Predict the structure.
Amino acid sequence: MGVLTPQYLRDAPLVRRRIRLFFANGESADEVLLDFFERQSQGGPRGAEAVWALATKHCLRRVRDSDRRDLLVSPLPSDSWAAQSGAGEAPGMRALAHGWRSESPVMLEVLVYAEVDGMSASQIADVMGKPRGWVADLVRARSSTLGA
């Protein structure tokens, strides 16, 4: 697959933004970006939510398969929602930073959307294609274990 496809030209900025939360700026981020597009099928156009979800899953899979102890780039990129809102100090974000390896891939994805992206249960449900109640139950269960 050629890298400079219409899909790449359209979606690369959004995917790069997602990658920056998980990988440092520089060659590793570029490598992840290229790997993401090499693995994508040449299907029809996708909406931003679908691209965001695919990029999130791709990043989480790469981080989980690596030896890394940290989930996110530290410090968080200054233009990220989490950095701008001070979410790094929230109990949920701290628990995620320390215990991310013990979470299932699905729960980890939900927690990234909730704690890092600041999405509501409805927004997470839309991105993941799951029922809102299912997402709300997961987030509520997590909050109760944190005492929030």
About this structure: Residues 48-65 form the longest helix (18 residues). The chain has a mean pLDDT of 86.
